[in-house]
Amino acid sequence: MVEKIRIILMVNGELREAYVEPGSTLLSVLREDLGLTGAKHGCGNGECGACTVIIDGKAVPSCLVLAAGAQGKEIETIESLQRGGEHHPLQRAFIEHGAVQCGFCTPGMIMSAKALLNGNSDPSEEEVREALQGNLCRCTGYKKIVEAVLSVSGRGD
Amino acid sequence: MGEELNIVGKSVAMKGSGEKVSGTAEYTVDMRLPGMLYAKILRSPHAHANIRGIDTSEAEALPGVRAVITHEEAKILYTVTHGSAREYGIDDRVRYYGDKVAAVAAVSEEVAEEALGLIDVDYEVLPAVFEMEEAMRSDAPVVHPERDDVEGNILEKSVQEWGDVEKGFAEADHVFENRFITQRVCHSALEPHAMVASWDGDGNLTMWSSEQTAFMIRDSLAEAFQMPRSKIRFIVPPYVGGGFGGKYESAEKIVVALLARKAGKPVMLRLARDEVFHTTRTRSPCIFETKTGVKADGTLVAREVRAIVDVGAYAWGAIMASRAASYMTLLYRCPNIRYLGYGVYTNTPPSGAMRGFTSTPIHYAMESELEEIAYALGMDPTEFRLKNALNVGDIIPINGKPVTSSGLREAVIRGREAIGWEGRQRVPGSEGGAKRRGIGMACYSHYAPMLKSTERSVGNAVLKINVDGSLHLLLGVPDIGQGLRTIMAQIAAEALGAKLDEISVTLADTSVTPWGTTTAASRSTQETGGAVEMAAGRMKGRLLELASEIMDIPADRLDAMDGVVFAKGVPEQGLTFKDILSHPDVHQSGENVIITKATYNVPTFIPPYGTAFADVEVDTETGRVRVLKMVAASDVGRAINPQSVEGQLEGGMQMGIGYALTEELRLHPETGEPLNNSFMDYKVLRAGDMPEMEVIIVEPVDPNSVYGAKGIGEMAVIPMAPAVRNAIYNATGARVHDLPITPEVLLRALREKEKGKC
Known about the structure:
The structure holds 2 protein chains of 2 kinds.
Chain A: E1 5-11, E2 14-20, H1 26-33, E3 52-55, E4 58-61, E5 74-76, H2 89-96, H3 106-119, H4 125-131, H5 143-153
Parallel strand pairs in A: 1-5
Antiparallel strand pairs in A: 1-2, 3-4, 3-5
Chain B: H1 17-22, E1 37-43, E2 49-55, H2 57-61, E3 65-70, H3 71-74, E4 77-79, E5 86-88, E6 93-94, E7 100-106, H4 109-116, E8 120-125, H5 132-135, E9 154-162, H6 165-171, E10 174-182, E11 194-199, E12 205-209, H7 215-225, E13 232-235, H8 252-263, E14 267-270, H9 273-279, E15 286-294, E16 300-312, E17 337-345, H10 360-376, H11 381-388, E18 395-396, E19 401-402, H12 408-419, E20 435-445, E21 458-465, E22 471-475, H13 484-496, E23 503-507, H14 524-551, E24 558-561, E25 564-567, E26 570-576, H15 577-581, H16 584-589, E27 594-601, E28 609-619, E29 624-635, H17 642-661, E30 692-698, H18 720-732, H19 743-757
């Protein structure tokens, strides 16, 4: 077996320590070592977006990032959104607009949407769709997801 | 019905969505049990081979490996859903590229994967067959030589006939013939298949798995392992990341259970995405040869379909071909119908149920042909269909039952308006230019349970009330993401007069919930929902009796709403459920523990009717198609949760446009190796690929169903592909027959059209 290395990650504002194999992905460390199972493993190749987290403000598929390489960066996962038992406005919008069906893509979708809104508080529908282009959903046809994101940005109904 | 409804018919947020948006919803892959091991499966690099020998000694010696199994221990027959869906845990013969050869349980997936590489297999490679028509020849390699009940590769041959088609064609003024070919597609649920098995010291097996049924699998496992059903507990975890028919049948459950028993530890298997693509069930490729006879006025007089269904190396059962005949009889009146279908084994990925099972492909063929016939007769395609549609009271030939409600006419009228039907080309392909617009449509009807008069459709429900008036609903079928949990709670709350948010729902645990069928075939709303309504009605009856004694008012003058029992007409003076159950008389008698249960036999056959319209732009130079707008107008009887119905139909458009234009699991023509088993290469539509979408819900409340509702989950996909295809036809006049309509397919059809002119 491969020798493990010690890494320190800044996840959701906290420093977390883990002993991992040098080739471990950030997704696997979040899920297996840090108990943050909100990011989902949908493909392992960065093609479905179910594992999306925000690193230094950008939405990235965490299955393509080496955990060791994410040291010194700010990592935000879906678990950081709920504060004091209250859902984040994006989370509320997803619930209210029926943007959630099976839910497996939902954490990744919300993180991609959050990264978009952080940099662009008033995106057009086209910009929202473009920001979600890396996140697959097989249940909803995306309409209610796009509507949920737009409602938070202030462009929605 | 006329009754006023408070909760049924209102859009409510899906139960569990708070957990899903928070990342705390636990799916099977998120489970961790103490000491749990991880499994990997060695998969065949040949499409057809005998396993002459297999040496696992090096793999077993690898540190971290806890168990290795091969066909020597795992050649256990596993039958699911129908007796003819048979597959061994692991066989000594592999029948497709990716078939199971051996399995390893180890302390991590990495170690298990490494161990797979140390297994030495001696394959005797056999000739393989990949094309269904070739597989039907008498000299073709035989995929299942061990099966005495299968002749050659023909799993089933089905001939079904109503009336006299020869006579019908003789009476026809025009006869049209076509040959359509549809492709193999994948469900592509976002959650990969996952399962966990654990044995206790007394030899009881518990399994958790991401599935669409619990009880049927428990029964199959009991049969395979020769164990009493009571010693197997099969649990579908509360959250399943999509199903669409694809989470049903895998024989991996035998493998994982055997690994767990051998290792003496719980074992988890989670399939990698490439395995999900080509080793789980797929939608069968089909060939349809169609023939339709019409009178000059557009009356259908004869219809014939000859179908070949490629069922792959393992099949759902001997209904893959025969079922499709039903869908020739549900929608249109036609006195003379003949269907001839073959289900054929090939050395290709297994096939099974997929949304609109056996219905989506044949609808594509039939609705494409009907569109062309309408234009050939100079008729409006919508009027042509309505002229021939079954009406309320007409008998549906497949099972002799009458149509009890139909929203087709309203759906067509409203759909036409929403798409701008008047903007279609009156003569397909008559407008010039490189880029051409066109509008097309398709209709559908679908019903899966009770197609034969011998089939039953039964739901069960158990409802328990707590002393504080809150409720637990126990049902045997899982929620696979479509919102079953929510609408069952809505039905219970409505029928009982309870508060929706005080109802908890526990699903699909064979040791806890009542028996249930499957979350498939769009049957749950009607079948399980019917049982929920009855169980809730019984609970209400008992609560009113108790309240009657306390309030000294006859029970028939009481009613309940929002968790309060009150005298009719005086809602402000009532007793809450809690007041009733904690009343000293009730409490002391022990009557406050009320459990009601119900079994509901679906009384009749209640198909929905609907339509889809597509507006497309075709670039005739590149062959690219852009769907600009889609409208789905569907009869759902009554929408229990309208937002969920919209979600189903919008999702159906994503899957249906993909079926029309982009999706196909391709195999190497000589080796059977999958060529595009990743989301990079298998094109599932993304947010930016979707057109403008509009959903129209039509509610011809059916007198025979719970609150008048019909199923919609499967139906949502069925009309989409033919509507897109017909819009392309309208834009260009090109007669596309094969799916998916890639630029190559379309350019070929355009060239054929040009040639036809010369």
